[in-house]
Design goal:
By secondary structure, the chain is α/β, with parallel strands linked by helices. The chain contains eight helices and seven strands; from the N terminus they run αβαβαββαββααβαα. A hairpin with a 4-residue loop joins strand 5 and strand 6.
Length: 198
């Protein structure tokens, strides 16, 4: 019934992330993309989940002026928290190396905030996954940076890429959350949102 119900709505993904596009498509959802750009800076004093939800909400609100009654905006923001610091997207090789050195041999948190927005309602939530990496050598880190150029990824890595295969030793929580979208939770929250509108 849910697939029939959701076909009555226009889903809008407010993201330029190719990984989020792929995850939603693989979940069988049809959607349009509207790219939004906001400064990805955490509000002062905010915690991880609060920051991720704040940024996801900001992205959704950028799209709100153009949506109609049967539109649902899906926006998300993923942050990496390691050793007391937020790791965003690296600006260059030096920053990428520093971030990957930070996660090497440690457990860090990947937090994705999600906002589901309609003209009349909003649902927000955050999903946290704990990821553990083995010790990475400098050679492995530089190889990954040079071959995969992870400058569009929070924490300077993609779990689905080479470094995830050879470095990640443990995941506690949603794997897809580490890729950028806890798609199982998004699907269930969409169900609940549509049920509420009946």
């Amino acid at each position: 019934m849910f697939r029939e119900d959701i076909s009555r709505y226009r889903l809008i993904l407010a993201s330029r992330s190719p990984r989020r596009k792929q995850l939603l498509a693989d979940a069988g959802l049809e959607f349009e993309v509207i790219v939004t750009d906001i400064p990805e800076e955490p509000p002062a004093g905010a915690g991880g989940e609060e920051t991720a939800i704040f940024l996801a909400r900001e992205k959704a609100n950028m799209v709100k002026p153009v949506i109609k009654d049967r539109d649902i905006v899906i926006s998300a923001d993923t942050i990496v928290f390691c050793s007391g610091s937020f790791l965003g997207k690296p600006a260059d090789e030096q920053e990428a190396f520093a971030m990957l050195s930070c996660i090497s041999g440690k457990t860090h948190e990947v937090i994705t905030g999600v906002c589901l927005l309609t003209l009349h309602s909003e649902r927000t939530f955050a999903e946290t996954t704990r990821v553990t990496f083995d010790n990475l050598s400098d050679e492995e880190i530089y190889y990954y940076i040079n071959e995969y150029k992870p400058y569009d990824k929070a924490g300077a890595y993609g779990i689905q890429e080479w470094i995830g295969y050879i470095g990640c030793s443990r995941i506690e929580g949603s794997y897809f959350n580490v890729m950028g979208l806890p798609v199982h939770r998004v699907y269930r929250e969409l169900e609940g949102l549509i049920d509420d509108r009946r």
